[in-house]
Amino acid sequence: MPTSSRTFFVAACVHAIVILPLTVHAMFAPHSWMPAWSAAAHGREMLAGFVLALIAGYLLGPQPKRWLCVLAIAWCLGRVAFLVPEFTLAKLGSPAFGLLMIFRVVPRLSVAKKWRNLALPVLLGLLSLAPLIFTALSEIDAFQALHATLRGTVLLLGLLLSFMGGRVLAPAFAGAHHRAGRVLEARVQPALEAGLILLIPAAVLLLPWRPELSGLLAVCAGMLVTIRLLRWRPWACAAHPDLIALSVGYAWVAVGLVGMGLALIAGKPATTALHVLTIGGIGLLSIGVMGRVLRARCDTGASLLPALMVASLLLSLARVFRVIQPFSIKVSFQIAAAMWSGAYGLMLSQLLLHEPFVVRALHRRRLCSRRA
Predict the structure, then answer these.
(1) Is 203:221 a contact under the CB 8 Å cutoff?
(2) Residues 305, 241: contact at Cβ < 8 Å?
(3) Which pLDDT score is estimated for 362?
(4) How far apart are CA 42 and CA 366, in angstroms?
(5) Contact call for residues 97 and 71 (beta carbons, < 8 A)
(6) Overall pTM surpassing 0.85 (yes/no)
(7) Containing H/E element for 290?
(8) Taking a C-beta distance cutoff of 8 angstroms, is the pair 280, 315 a contact?
């Protein structure tokens, strides 16, 4: 059966290359051919389009071709609805994709026995329902509720990143320490993971009524992520730059959670912290995870490492320009968007170069050149 990562990792990269620069252009050129997307529309599209494509690529696994085609069509329709709001039928694309994700992923993950592992399908179900909720709130013009839902979804996304990132980093760090002749005692750290699973959903539930208490819980969750990362001793794995890049992404998840929590406590907008979590956390972790999946699938070894490091550097710079804004807002945003697109363009080139038909074509070309 076809592997979903081949379809949806490519889709996520294409989305990153195209949608964000278009959004930034529309932000500063309201009279262009594109609609003037609001900040809420941008956030909704990044969560429903980019993030769900990454989740599908990592967790859907092998799927029958018919299901993969249906999922891909629903996802593409959702992107058409963003680009052409007048196309009413396309608005069903993102909600349909989210519901299909629940149908295809959640039952498979629900066979887990430990309650911490059962939290994953519940979390994925909530994130997959988000596009349906976004669409419904947009249609009834409930913009205040939409903004609150977006903030809650980002907090849940922080939980997913801390949960899945930890499940990727714990064995990776354990292996790196073992190869260096050391023993890593702290691996998954179930107590800290359980704390995150309890704190962040509680913060989401309290968000509409007690935002200051919700913010306090988010700060505590960010501190737990930090403690978890420090116990893996990433500084001792400097010989593994791919692990360091993943560690930096995981650290930005912690910073983003703390920043969002402090903003909620102070009653201020959490835009900066939100972009720290998304650009830094999602960006670096997604590049690292796509690279690890590609290396495992194609046995690429060290040949993929330079591209991963350059992409991680571009995403780190994109976060700097978006958050710190060293130039004017327009120029800083445009540079950040260009670096974001460049990072995922580089990742897309690696994904396509290691597709079987491309590998076979390159192999045939080498054979022909040798014979000549």
Answers:
(1) yes
(2) yes
(3) 47
(4) 45
(5) yes
(6) yes
(7) helix 283-298
(8) yes
**Of 47, 66, 133, 57, which Cα lies nearest the Cα of 95?**
133
The letter for the amino acid at 290 is M
Closest residue by Cα to residue 173 from 226, 234, 227: 234
For residues 208, 209, 215, 221, the Cα torsion angle rounded to the nearest 10 degrees is -80
- pLDDT at residue number 163: 94
Report the alpha-carbon angle 292-286-328, nearest 5.
140
The position carrying tokens 């912690």 is 254
**pLDDT(2) > 70:** no
201: CB partners within 8 A, 6+ apart: 156, 159
Nearest residue to 249 via CA among 241, 97, 295: 241
Rounded to an integer, what distance in angstroms lies between the CA atom of residue 15 and that of residue 214? 32
Q: Considering only 137-146, 180-189, 318-327, which range has the smallest mean pLDDT?
A: 137-146
Residue whose C-alpha is closest to residue 252's, from 308, 206, 318? 318
Give exposure, 228-246, as e/b (b: 16+ Cβ within 10 Å).
bbebbebeebeebebbbbb
Given a cut of 70, whether residue 284 has pLDDT beyond it is yes
Which tokens go with 251? 């650290």
The span from the CA of 82 to the CA of 290, in Å, is 25
Q: CA–CA distance from 250 to each of 100, 187, 219, 308, 311 (Å)?
A: 29, 15, 15, 16, 16
Distance CA 97, CA 79 (A): 11
Token representation of residue 170: 């714990």
Are the C-beta atoms of residues 245 and 288 closer than 8 Å to each other?
yes
Mean pLDDT rounded to a whole number for the chain: 88
Query: Left if phi > 0, otherwise alpha if psi is -120 to 50, otherwise beta: which for 18?
Result: alpha
CB 334 within 8 A of CB 321: no
The pair of structure tokens assigned to 14 is 């294409």
Length of the chain: 372
Q: Sign of dihedral through CA atoms 106, 131, 291, 280?
A: negative
